[in-house]
Amino acid sequence: MTTQNAEKIISSAMTVGTPFYFYDMKLLRQTVAAARAAAANPMFRIHYAMKANVEVPVLEVMREAGFGIDTVSGGEISRAVDCGFNPARIVFAGVGKSDAEIDLAIEKGIGCFNVESIEELEVIAGRARALGKKARVALRVNPNIDAHTHHYITTGLAENKFGIALEMLDRAIDIATSSADIDFRGLHFHIGSQITTLRPFEILSERINDLQDRYESRGIRFATINVGGGLGIDYENPDTNPIPDFEGYFSTFSKCLRIREGQEVHFELGRSMVGQCASLITRVLYVKHGLEKQFAIADAGFTDLIRPALYDARHLIENLTSDATETVIYDVVGPICESSDVFEKDTTLPLTSRGDLLALRSAGAYGSVMAMQYNCRSLPRSVFSE
Ligand SMILES: *Cc1c(COP(=O)(O)O)cnc(C)c1O
């Protein structure tokens, strides 16, 4: 944490009250600029995967950067449109799109449905016909690739619920290309999240190359290839690596993916865009001396940031107000009546006291969006710092 941010946080805590998410908007803008610069190929299109963070100031930065937007619900489509995104730059994924969501998407004229099953494809064709419109569709392929990430955030394995199995793709493409109600655009992939090496993206590119060769020999061309998102961030060292390796990421695709003439390549980046720009700020209510452990009991819990409880995720914790040189090992826990309400066990902090402010770093992605009101708690607030 920079001293400047720490000072702003300490003064915000007096006025806003804890817990709250603190956004470093300058870092967000730098991150977005780095991604844009690295994706300089004119056929590359970035869509921000908005499920990572839907705060309006964040969405505005994405819109101003000229990004399209990746959505996973009707609610997200409406929010994106309200926020001024061009509907033609909205893509819509998800294994369980309802009829009402499909109708909304067709009526808004979104850029593309990323279709996850043959059953869904048939429903979308039917709804489009009823509305007298054509639906633009890409087929989400499950390429059976292990992204070597946590089992809850891997999505490209045959056992996962996402996408159309390679064995069923022929039939899906037949239906999509022969339906009068479908404008078939191409293929979509998304193999998982928090992917920290580039190797899975190389394997994905090779898989796509094989598929393109195979279908091209049958006269089928894809106007777009959408490689999804998944680029990870450095949760351990947010100050040394505040901006992900966008250059490595985009150049992997430039090198490995055999892009066809006139073909657009779409990227759906969520976590890598917003993960590092926010911290969850919480005040220590009690330091409880247990029989075997010391507990730092914070006023934020999994209702504010569920990633540790949900996927064993680790967020670096800093004490912003202690100036002690002595360190102590704590379990940093929340106030909620569940044993899983633990941010981190056995973490070393400077000697911590009641009233200290803690920052849980790298909380910009899948943090505030998953906040809930269990125990009748209030939702955490947000502070946007320029
Ligand atoms: C969640 C999601 C993304 C974004 O994933 P990140 O790991 O946050 O980059 C992209 N595409 C689809 C279809 C998704 O569901």
Biggest β-sheet strands, sense, barrel: 8 strands, mixed
Segments where pLDDT lies below 50 for 5+ residues?
none
| Overall radius of gyration | 22 Å
Q: What's the order of the H and E elements?
A: HEHEHEHEHEHEEHEHEHEHEEHEEEEE
Shape: elongated
Number of helices: 11
Tell me the fraction of residues in β-strands, as a range: 15-25%
Structural class determined from secondary elements: alpha/beta
| Strand runs, count | 17
Ligand inventory: pyridoxal-5'-phosphate
Average of the residue pLDDT scores: 95
Please describe the topology of this protein.
Elements: H1 3-16, E1 20-24, H2 25-38, E2 44-49, H3 56-64, E3 68-71, H4 74-82, E4 90-92, H5 99-108, E5 112-115, H6 118-131, E6 135-142, E7 164-165, H7 169-178, E8 182-188, H8 199-216, E9 224-226, H9 246-256, E10 264-269, H10 271-274, E11 278-289, E12 294-298, H11 307-311, E13 317-319, E14 327-333, E15 342-350, E16 357-360, E17 381-385
Parallel strand pairs: 1-17, 2-3, 2-10, 3-4, 4-5, 5-6, 6-7, 6-8, 8-9, 9-10, 12-14
Antiparallel strand pairs: 1-11, 11-12, 11-16, 13-16, 14-15
Residues 49, 51-52, 70, 72, 93, 190, 193, 228-231, 268-272, 365 line the site of pyridoxal-5'-phosphate (PLP).
Primary descriptors:
386 residues; alpha/beta; eight-stranded mixed beta sheet; eight-stranded parallel barrel; 11 helices; 17 strands; elongated; binds pyridoxal-5'-phosphate
